[in-house]
Amino acid sequence: MKSIFSKIKRVIKDPWRMHLDLLGLWRLIFIKRVVKGIEVFYSYRGELYPEGINDGNRSPLIAEKAKEFCKGNGIDVGAGERPFPGAIPVEDELKQNAYKLDNFPDGTLDYVFSSHCLEHLKRWDAALKLWIKKLKRGGILFLYLPHESMRLWNPGSPWVGSAHKWIPTYGVLNEFLSKNGMEIINHDPDRDRYWSFYIVAKKNGLR
Questions:
Q1: CATH number for the domain including 112?
Q2: Is residue 9 domain-shared with residue 103, that is, in the same domain?
Q3: Rounded CA gap, 75 and 148, in Å?
C-alpha cells in the first residue's frame, strides 16, 4: 500500500514521469522484439523495423549523401549528440532553437541541415520559412525525415507518443518549398533501410 501511495505522490509531483511510464507500458504491450539470426527487429502492426530505430539521432545515416550538397558555413537544426560534420549545432534552447535563429543574419548561411527534427515541430511551416530566410542565394536545405510508411513513428504511436506532431511527406514538402523560393535539386521519396527519406532544395534567390 505504501508503494502505491509513493507512486501516486511521484506522479503528482512529476506528471511527465507518468507520461513516460505509460508510454513504456504501451510499448511493452504493442511492440514485440524479434530476433532473426544475428539481426534484431521490432514488430508492430505486421511490420518489422530494424533495431537501429531505437537511436534517436539519424544524422550519421545520411551524412555522406548530405556532404555532397552541404558545404561551407551551415547549421544543423536539432543536431543532438552527433551534429552534421562542420555544422553549427542548433538545439532546443531558450535563446536558440528551430524557431529562433537570431545569431545568424538573414541570407548568410550556405546550408541548413536537419535530420529527424521537423516531425517534432507543430509549427513546422514557420520553422522552414525561417530556415529558408537564413540561407543565402543558392543556399542548400537538406532534410532527412521519417517515411510516411513508418507507422511506428506516427504521432500517437507507442514508440513516439506525442513527440511527433505530424507526418512529413514528399508531396507536402515539395509543394511548400516550391512556393517559398526553393527548387528541389535532389531527393529520394522512397524509404531507405531506416524507413526515412531525404529532400535537397536550393534557394533560387527570388525571396
A1: 3.40.50.150
A2: no
A3: 25
Domain boundary among 17, 33, 52: 52
Distance of alpha carbon 163 from alpha carbon 119, whole angstroms: 8
Q: What predicted TM-score, i.e. pTM, was given to this entire model? A: 0.80
Q: Which three cell numbers stand for residue 4?
A: 502505491
Q: Kindly indicate the confidence band of residue 50, based on its pLDDT and cuts at 50, 70 and 90.
A: confident
DSSP state of 206: -
98 grid coordinates: 528551430
Judging by DSSP bridges, how do beta strands 109-115 and 135-146 pair with one another? parallel
CA atoms of 106 and 38, how far apart (whole Å): 49
Spatial distance between the Cα atoms of 69 and 47, rounded to a whole number of angstroms = 33
The SS3 assignment for 148 reads: coil
3-state percent breakdown (helix, strand, coil) of the chain, nearest 5: 35, 30, 40
3-state secondary structure 107-131: CCEEEEEEECCHHHCCCHHHHHHHH
Which residue range(s) make up the domain with 45? 2-52
| pLDDT tens-digit series, residues 53-84 | 666 566 777 999 999 999 999 999 999 888 99
- C-alpha 20: how far from its chain's center? 20
pLDDT for the residue 15: 54
Map grid coordinates 549545432 to a residue: 89
